[in-house]
Automatic annotation (TrEMBL):
It comes from Sphingopyxis witflariensis. SMART domains: PbH1. Keywords: Signal. Residues 1-26 form the signal peptide. This is Right handed beta helix domain-containing protein.
């Protein structure tokens, strides 16, 4: 994991600027979990908070029956600070089917609390720019189930998103999902026993690094889908992650796009462009460590581009993979190749540069009308000149300062 040092002079100037910008009346609103009407009191605090305020959750387990919402800008929601177990928002008795917490305002900082067993998504933010999720846990405690909420951490339609040191378990779609957003960092987080551990969808400029994705159906997904307001996902870097043993059977509800992800998938790139996958550790992913595919479903969106383009794979460490490929015909392919297929799987469409000391299996699927490397599945190395390296994502200094 990495540490991010900010020069002392910069910290001082930033602190002065933040103090100057904060309202003179900024205050801390404390709410106790033991109050008989804790659900109402907490929602009231989120409604009455003003820019600059901190809503401080008391220690303990909150038994909540209704979802919460926040639409005030520049508010901090902070737990009691005892790791991720100091303040636990337990929605096991939730009456509606919505998310546990919905944020629709800018410059919000969520830190040091847990959200359990929501009927819908755990924490969703929509149109919330410069949002920070820090040291937050979202979990469905009964294990992987189709009836679990779809998303754990779920920012969408936002610019400047930081997800730092979160833990998500049990989402029936994606544990950490960022969709239709720009300028994103997901780091130092753990996704376990979700269908998709981490997913970047229809988004621009994202760094996904120093995370652990394990025991999901698929570890890390980079998708671009049709018929969404924001399309053409690109410039995504996936690096320095530990992606291993993603073997959980797919438990997504039928009809969801992730319901088609084969168990045992490490990283899956579909119909995206300018994606770099490097310096990751892969091991014990039964289908593949890395899969690169086109979008193979019916669509009516004339502007949609279904092909993966400019995908670069380099300098990863590959452990055991391909020993239990969970796609049609995969088991027969593995048997024919001595017990496993190569750790990198490519459907044969689009373009990719793979500079690794491991094999690549091309499925040579012809239906997306792209040139094929061979007439039947084979081991190939896709060497070539890689495009220029993508620049790293930089977030506003005030966002980084919140997690120091």
């Amino acid at each position: 994991m990495r540490f991010y040092d900010v020069p002392r002079a910069a910290c001082l100037s930033l602190a002065v600027a933040m103090l100057a910008a904060a309202p003179a009346t900024a205050k801390t609103i404390s709410v106790s979990a033991t109050t008989p009407d804790a659900n109402e009191k907490l929602q009231e605090a989120l409604i009455l908070a003003e820019p600059g305020d901190v809503v401080q959750l008391g220690a303990g387990t909150w038994k909540l029956t209704d979802g919460l919402s926040l639409d005030v800008a520049n508010v901090t929601l902070r737990g009691a600070g005892a790791g991720l177990d100091g303040s636990i928002l337990d929605f096991s008795g939730q009456q509606g089917a919505g998310e546990g917490l919905l944020v629709t305002s800018d410059d919000v900082f969520l830190t040091d609390f847990a959200v359990l067993n929501t009927k819908g998504d755990g924490i969703k933010s929509k149109g919330a720019d410069r949002i920070v999720y820090h040291q937050v846990r979202v979990e469905w405690t009964a294990g992987p189930k189709e009836t679990n909420g779809a998303y754990g951490i779920y920012p969408v339609e936002s610019t400047d998103v930081l997800i730092d040191s979160v833990f998500v378990r049990g989402a029936s779609d994606a544990g950490i999902y960022v969709g239709q957003s720009k300028n994103i960092i997901v780091r130092d987080s753990t996704a376990i026993e979700n269908v998709a551990g981490i997913e970047i969808e229809n988004s621009y400029d994202a760094d996904v690094h120093d995370n652990i994705a394990t025991k999901n159906t698929g570890g890390i997904l980079v998708f671009d889908l049709p018929s969404l307001p924001m399309q053409g996902g690109h410039n995504v870097r996936v690096f320095d992650n530990d992606v291993r043993d993603n073997s959980t059977p797919n438990f997504a509800p039928k009809g969801n796009i992730v319901a088609s992800v084969p168990a045992g998938t490490g990283v899956l790139v579909m119909a995206n462009r300018n994606v770099e996958i490097f310096d990751n550790l892969f091991d014990q992913n039964g289908t593949s460590n890395i899969s690169i595919v086109g979008y193979r479903y019916a669509y009516t969106d004339a502007k949609y581009q279904p092909l993966p383009r400019a995908i670069v794979v380099r300098d990863n460490q590959h452990g055991r993979a391909g020993f239990a490929p969970a796609f049609p015909g995969g088991a027969e392919m593995a048997k024919a190749m001595g017990g496993s297929i190569p750790p990198i799987l490519w459907d044969g469409t689009g373009d990719a540069v793979v500079n690794e000391d491991v094999g690549v299996m091309s499925l040579n699927l012809p239906d997306l009308k792209m040139p094929q490397s061979a007439a039947k599945p084979s081991r190939v190395d896709l060497k070539g000149t890689a495009p220029a390296a993508l620049p790293g994502v930089t977030l506003p200094a005030a966002m980084e300062a919140k997690v120091q």
